[in-house]
Amino acid sequence: MGSYAWTESDLKQMSSIGISPAETQRQLEIFRNPPAAIKLLKPAALHDGVAQLNEKQIDEALKTHESARRQGRFSKFVPASGAATRMFQLLFKFLDQSPLNKETLKANADAGDEDSRQLLHLMQHLPKLAFYSELESIMAANGLKLSDLLQKGSYEQVLRYLLIEEGLSYGRKPKGLVFFHRYSSENRTPFEEHLIESAGYCEGTQLPARVHFTVSEEHLAEFKKRLEVLKGKKGWSPLLTVEFSVQSPATQTIAVDEFNQPFRDEKGKLVFRPGGHGALIENLNQLHGDIVYIKNIDNVASESSLGTSVRWKKILGGHLINVQDKIFTLLNLLEMPLNDAGLSKEIERLDLGPWLNPLMVGEKKALLKNLLNRPIRVCGVVRNMGEPGGGPFWVTGSDGIDSLQIVESAQVDMTNPDQIRIFKQSTHFNPVDLVCGVKDRKGRQFDLTRFVDPGAVFISRKSVNGKEIKALELPGLWNGAMADWITLFVEVPIETFNPVKTVFDLLKPAHQF
């Protein structure tokens, strides 16, 4: 199919957000001819793609981390642009229901309605949540006593003041600024908990702890305001360096209708949508880091559980540098006039592990150098506990080379019984607990956009003003956007994974004082 005939208004609209007509045309072609699904070879399992570090390796990693920490090599990158809407999705379902009270919820719960049971449980335990005092204050300012309403089982106003703008407006607030944890003297947001955790990686040095948050433009001012509040608190570390960036408008993608034609709004303008978290590879590229931790904004535990998370972050960081040093050594050896036997002996001595074996089969030195001269990431994975999301797999690429990848269900051909079977055999889960080495052996930063698989896109169905559209999500940050990186998986304790996907998760022990 030929190029779409854009109007002058279309071209001006694309120019205003920094998207070229050629890129928009490329996206249209993806809708018309979607890329093939990823080809799963087998799940990555313990000792077959997932490493279980022994005590010696852990000690070595911690020593390496300590040395690198004193050199100021570490920074942290936290995707934090998501709103809390999904976190409170079930509550929105009940927002306009009347009457909404204890008796109605109990009757529905007794009849088998799980949503009613969950909401009733939440209302009965609301005082345990960190945002309770904030909600209590704003309701009191409007002549309402929260404790009385809860005792009477009158929940309508409680939900309204929690979710909409006359109250806390948690329905539109960024998740990073929702109070997650309550302490004896203060309440903390995940934004603050990430800063405290980051300081833990670098404690004992006078070098700054650099933390970078990607936020939506509409919430940037709120984050900066909260940061100023935190800086005024007792105990704030002057060594914390906090940075923000927003997702570039140029990473938006065009929406189409059911016939794969550009979708237009009621004013006739093209509809572009955010391209998903994969667009953040541009933000990570601009960070100009060295060793970079990546962790989701909602994966934080309260301070009582912080020690395990910090320790394993140090282990992953040190392990990455140890492996990276071996790769750099091998790349230096490839510059030397070694014969194949001598090279194989050196590779065996370096003990890089089974992930290198597929790269070695029949490869010439030049190609091997290209395969090794890439960014590297170590991904902490936990035992699969049934959480939704991606997992570690061996994947066969279009070039025939097997590699380790994080794979989500949307990337898999779920009409293929064999691929479904492999996907369901996954033993581990990706909690987005990454540490990345983004510099080469000469200390130059890689251009991370060169290592993206442009075909690893998601096509999803959305709704705009009641009309169904198809939307294109760019290769995910830890999926296709890092597809051509060197990837290693390390098993970490389940205690390091404490996500808050819904408000009900805040009642779990890891988020209680």
Characterization of the model:
The chain is an alpha/beta fold and 513 residues long. The protein has two domains: 8-84 and 178-511, Spore Coat Polysaccharide Biosynthesis Protein SpsA, Chain A (Alpha-Beta Complex), CATH 3.90.550; 86-172, no CATH class. The chain contains 17 helices and 19 strands. Strands 2, 3, 4, 7, 8, 11, 12, 15, 16 and 19 form a ten-stranded mixed β-sheet that branches. Strands 1-13-14 form a three-stranded antiparallel β-sheet. Strand 5 and strand 6 (187-188) form a beta hairpin. The longest helix has 28 residues, at 306-333. It is globular. The model has no long low-confidence stretch (mean pLDDT 89).
Q: What attributes does this structure have?
A:
513 residues, alpha/beta, Spore Coat Polysaccharide Biosynthesis Protein SpsA, Chain A, ten-stranded mixed sheet, three-stranded antiparallel sheet, 17 helices, 19 strands, 17% strand
Regarding quaternary structure, what we see is: single chain
Low-confidence stretches: none
- Number of domain modules: 2
- The amount of helix comes to 25-40%
| Gap from first CA to last CA | 60 Å
Structural class: alpha/beta
Radius of gyration: 25 Å
Describe the main β-sheet briefly: 10 strands, mixed
CATH architectural type of the largest domain: Alpha-Beta Complex
In short:
The chain has 513 residues and is of the alpha/beta class. Helices cover 35% and strands 17% of the residues.
Layout of SSEs?
Layout: H1 8-17, H2 21-32, E1 40-43, E2 45-46, E3 49-51, H3 55-70, E4 74-79, H4 89-94, H5 102-110, H6 114-124, H7 132-140, H8 146-152, H9 156-163, E5 181-182, E6 187-188, H10 190-201, E7 209-215, H11 220-231, E8 240-246, E9 253-254, E10 272-273, H12 281-287, E11 291-295, H13 306-333, H14 340-350, H15 357-360, H16 365-372, E12 376-383, E13 391-396, E14 402-407, H17 417-424, E15 428-429, E16 433-437, E17 458-464, E18 467-473, E19 486-491
Parallel strand pairs: 2-3, 3-19, 4-7, 4-11, 7-8, 12-19
Antiparallel strand pairs: 1-13, 5-6, 9-10, 11-16, 12-15, 12-16, 13-14, 17-18
